Amino acid sequence: QVELVESGGGSVQPGGSLRLSCTTSTRPFCRSIVAWFRQAPGKEREFVALIRWHGGSALYADSVKGRFTISRDNPKNTVYLQMNALRAEDTAVYYCARGSEYTTNQAKYEFWGRGTQVTVAS
Question: CA–CA distance from 69 to each of 22, 26, 43, 46, 50 (Å)?
């Protein structure tokens, strides 16, 4: 069983930055994909970003492109989400997930973390 643990959430003012971490209990396979999703109050969970473990190619939702950066640290089995220029609408619970398809479809991800809260407010 693969476990994923998110950390780094918190409260920040608009325009601020946070870095989320997602550490997996086992080293992802070369073709593994690790993604971030988020769910705001009263809304459905949505895709944020993903990264291919081997090679590091990434994909972003339009709403975060240019502000968020996803990266990985292979020796640490950790994926990061650097979030800059945060907005109130970025407030959500952020989840990391791991799968084997390069897709934004959350149904294709087999393993999920429990989430970390990000609140952007003045």
Answer: 14, 23, 23, 17, 10
Mean pLDDT, residues 57-82 taken together: 96
Note the residue count of the chain.
122
The residue written with tokens 């939702």 in the block is: 61
Confidence band for 68, pLDDT divided at 50, 70 and 90: very high
Q: How confident is the model at residue 52 (pLDDT cuts 50, 70, 90)?
A: very high
Of 37, 18, 34, 35, the closest CA to residue 95 belongs to 37
CB 4 within 8 A of CB 77: no
